[in-house]
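Work Package 3 (structural annotation) set out to generate three-dimensional models for the target panel prioritized at the project kickoff. During this period the team completed the workflow that converts sequence records into discrete structure tokens, so that structures can be stored uniformly alongside our sequence database. As a representative example, we reproduce one entry of 476 residues exactly as it appears in the project archive.
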Amino acid sequence: MQFRNNRSSIILAAGLALLLRAETCQAQQQPAATVDPYAVNNGQIPSRAEYDGPLWRFNHDYPQTQPKADQPWQKVLHGKPLTKDNAHAYIEALKEAVAKDMRVMVTRPKAWNATEHNWYSMPWAGDEVEKAGWEGREAIYGTYTGQILPASTYAESGLKVDIRNYATIYYNDVAAYTLHRVWQKCLPGQGTCIPTLDNDAAQFGEGSLVVKSAGVNASGEQWPVMQGAAKWQIYRPPFDLHGTVPGKPPVVSDIYVGIFDIIVKDSVAAPETGWVFTTLVYDKDAPGKDAWDKMVPLGAMWGNDPNVNSARHPGQPLLETYINPAAPAYAKVTLGYGGRMSGPFDIAVKTNVDVDGKIVAKLPSSSCLSCHGTASFHPGSYQALTFFYPVQMPLTTPWHMYTPGSDEWNEWFRNRPGTVPQSKEPGAVALDYSTFMEAALMNYAAVESEKKPQLLKGAREDFWATWRNWQKARRH
């Protein structure tokens, strides 16, 4: 689907999108036959009059044998688990390990070619899958629609407009071998694409790296902290605080890069979870020759600190999260439960929620690991298993949270290996902290359930309406 449309085709596509979105949740969604697991993008291509640069390219030539993992960042550890004392050096070592490639990706978007740099992307993510609430990958820079935050979230740092983040995600060769194992029965143009999840196929090897970089629509004039940030162009419809505006055609827009996550499978550093989540944030006042140099550590997280009940003992220090005291202030506004690690655009802080019958204006409710630790899939039923936040089901307005610090709440803040799902549902498969893998599998399931509707026969609710509601809820 990497081609250019003329103006009439764009107008036609916008009209079709409007008709589709005008249907109710129970109406027919995008036909299964039109969803290509290896689509490069969602089919919305800017004309040359709108954009005359290169389009994003999809590298899915995954390694078919396990690559050797070079892990220079482990030198910081001296063979011992990560601590708050060496976490900053560990983050810097990770940044240095990816700097040659990622400096290009962040600061020179028109020169970036993932294939040349041996970085890979996920199938079942290019096409829009309406039934699953998935908006697909956009054509210019391969980004995905992310969370929406009102300007009031960052009022203290001068944000003047509501923002949405748009993220791009890549896997190194070690991590891409897992993509090969899961999708080994799926070939471009084959017509079927069935995942393989037995024999721990979804488990990532040691040295796997996943990078996610995200930008927002606020320029330095609209948000002073973004002055001098790297600029990308994307092709998306406008949004409001409710989500993507229905019926509006995509436009070429500028976004400004604010975060860069480096997620690494390192069981030496993180023996209980296997993963270290790190985040770099843009600091306009940091020294350096370009915007990549000005991406500084916000922090790292390698465990959920299950022995620290932050609700009942708010002064107790965390031992498995490190936050850089010198990180810019705006980046700390949305830290998670008890100060656990969460990036600026991740919405770990939920607003106007019900806690024990009282409305709480702002409640830190999540973290990097607690959110990603919910990632799982049920191959037999496709049912949604564990929501990303400690919320009582079904979702209501306002959300009814489990009591912070209670046994139910604490289920989200336990340390589990990536082979163990949080869900107790028989048959649930843990996805090794990969929420993107979960999303791709649910896109597959949305298509497959059209072919085999008997799989959802007898469901107590409109299953896909629930899943779409979950996806929307996590972005607000």
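The radius of gyration is 21 Å.
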